[in-house]
């Protein structure tokens, strides 16, 4: 998981997968290779996340 497919692969995953935060943690949802599971991605499908 050190290197992604592109230069900004992991930063985009953090951006699209962001769900919530608290002082000591950032909560994310989804899988890096499945954009339909990331809540801020244009291809997001709410049916893919049971907690949604």
Which labels suit this protein?
single chain; 52 residues; alpha+beta; two-stranded antiparallel ribbon; 1 helix; flat
Structure description:
- This protein is of the alpha+beta class and 52 residues long.
- The chain has a domain at 14-48.
- It is built from one helix and two strands; from the N terminus they run H-E-E.
- A two-stranded antiparallel ribbon has the order 1-2.
- Strand 1 (18-22) and strand 2 (25-28) form a beta hairpin.
- The termini are far apart.
- The mean pLDDT is 82.
Average predicted confidence as pLDDT: 82
Classify the helix fraction into a percent range.
Answer: 10-25%
The N- to C-terminal Cα distance equals 26 Å
* Alpha plus pi helix count: 1
Over all CA atoms, what is the radius of gyration?
11 Å
Low-confidence stretches: none
**Structure class:** alpha+beta
For the biggest sheet, the summary is: 2 strands, antiparallel
Order of helices and strands: HEE
Total strands: the figure is 2
Q: What is the strand arrangement across the widest sheet?
A: 1-2
Q: Which strand-content bin applies to the residues?
A: 15-25%
Q: In one word, what is the shape? A: flat
């Amino acid at each position: 998981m050190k290197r992604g497919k592109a230069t900004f692969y992991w930063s985009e995953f953090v951006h699209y997968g962001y769900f919530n935060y608290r002082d000591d943690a950032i909560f994310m949802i989804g899988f890096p290779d499945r954009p339909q599971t990331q809540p801020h991605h244009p291809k997001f499908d709410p049916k893919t996340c049971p907690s949604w």
